[in-house]
Amino acid sequence: MGVHSQRGAFVAGLFGGLLAVALSLGRVLFQADSSVGELVWAEDGLFPLCVRKAGMWDCLSDPFAGYLLGLPRLLAGMTAAFPMDDWGWTTNVVAALGWGVFAGLAGYWLVVSGIRLFPAIVIALIPVAVPLVGFEAVNSIGSIYMPLLFTATLALAVGWNHRAQTVLAAGLAFLATVTIPIAALLIGPLAHSVLRQRISRRSGAVVLGALVLGSALQFAVIVSAPNRRNMVFSSESIGFWLSDLPTAALTLWPGLYFGSVTVFGIFTMSIVWWTGALLALGLLVLGITLAVKPSTEVSVAGVLLVSGLAYSFIPTATGYASNRYFVMTVTGLAAAAVLLLDNAAQGGRSHSGHGWRLYGVVAVFALAWTVALPASTWRATPAPAWSVVLEQVRTGCAADPTAPARFTFSPDWPQDGVTDVQPPTNQLAPCSAVDRSAER
Predict the structure, then answer these.
(1) What is the per-residue pLDDT for 354?
(2) In the chain, is it the N or the C terminus that has fewer CB atoms within a 10 Å radius of its CB?
(3) Do the Cβ atoms of 20 and 100 come closer than 8 Å?
(4) Residue 440: inside a domain, yes or no?
(5) What's the chain's Rg over C-alpha atoms?
(6) What is the DSSP annotation of 40-53?
(7) Residue 44: C-alpha distances to residues 39, 254, 426 (Å)
(8) Alpha-carbon span 361 to 367, nearest angstrom
(9) Does residue 431 belong to any structural domain of this protein?
């Protein structure tokens, strides 16, 4: 890699990462500028509470909702090291830095692989910028698997030619598979790069070993978890996926945003299943067609389309419809569009104005998405405020130090009757863990 390419990759990594940090935290602040210090979101508080009372290893190996969540569990150790009074800021800053790291790595990797600086930075920012992620996932440690899986998919799809990148790709693959089960599908982008000779077979074997090891650990936890996940496809769930896919894709259209939506109403539009079937079939055929093209940008766009469909199909078809499952489909679609636009722009440089096509489209969407920049009120509003939770817990512990303290995290979670939270990862903790200092 030449000096100019190294400089461009460094700029993409640093600039893209810093922008992602600002955007990730900013989307929450823009909705409620005084709430971050009072906002501890769901698993972002539940996991460090587990570390406080049971220790890092027991919590790292404890299945949640029936599977491992490796990276959020590791980051929970950072939050747990701080006093509980600071968890509002700590969880949000750690989340922003984590999302920024993966954006920076994605931008760096793309430029190293020959993608131009501007589209590389745009693609790196997509996971934190798309409107759909602002509903409940943006700047969440519990949802950090989204930029992790997005970056890993990009890295394995575009390939590499340095030994250090092989080690890094293997690390990404392992971390992704012990964080989210669908990361086993990374074998698709990896196989594509090996077949297209973007990476050597030896490098591919190393990364494949990391994928197999991580997936084996994940599968062992899934089959042995007390609260086992459903692993059987159902026609009803497939129908949900087909009905919700068009709505998820439409969230990319400027002007469609969540506003004050507080429930999972984004997918309540009545869409017949065959509309989604036609869209899925069209994206699948387009993805496969593009994946066999000689151009790196075009073929990677195809891989992103196919992978994005698979990332939402499997968890939805074996479970239930969730907007979180469709984030990877939407980000893959958006990233593929940027790559195709950049490829068209480069092919049209000899024609006046064609080289600015990508800049114009990105500028239009960036301006149009500003209305959807703030996270949803549901995501950004403390419910309840963290200081209120701590006051209630400490009052209860003062009255009866032997009784377990019960914590509630935004958005008023976990509610009574939620069965996914079991010891040691649950909302109950001994009073001795409440005021333990960061040094102990």
Answers:
(1) 52
(2) C
(3) yes
(4) no
(5) 22
(6) -BTHHHHHHHHHHH
(7) 10, 30, 12
(8) 10
(9) no
